[in-house]
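Our preliminary data section would be incomplete without showing what the modeling component actually yields. Below, a chain of 164 amino acids is followed by its predicted structure, encoded as tokens that our downstream tools consume directly.
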Amino acid sequence: MAELISRNGAALLWFLAAIGLLATEIATVQLVSIWFCLGAVAATMAALWGCSGTSQLLVFFLVSAVALAATRPLVGKVLHFRRVPTNADSIIGMSGPVLEEINNTTQTGRVRVNGLDWSARSCDGQPIQAGATIVVESIQGVKLMVRLQEAAAAGTTQAQSLSK
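Predicted structure:
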């Protein structure tokens, strides 16, 4: 009788874990815990069949891992998470003056691009003096990654001459 109660108690715990993981999945909608929910359901079945606690854990981890390995690549292809460009992306390639010396070491630097004042860092790590003209290479968070306009033009010219 004690074994039956113990078996049903373990099955109930695994079942509650499966419900909790399913609720987490529904709340996040990010496909974070669905694989573990499947593992918990399989462990519930193992508990009902009288498997030991170690066997239940093994079933949980194996089923979760197999479900993850089998479906994760498919999910990635089906959902197609695309990066949505923002208005800020439109300033990449634009140029502007350096308002405050750009120095990556001291983490200083401000530029004006498209009429807006931005925090900036140098792409190549070299300091850029105030008054110089820069070209925006990329955006990292709220900072522009910039290069001297002459350096950017020279890089373009070198790339064009290499392609000929």
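Residues 2-79 form one domain. DSSP finds four helices and five strands in the chain. Preliminary results of this kind motivate Aim 1 of the renewal.
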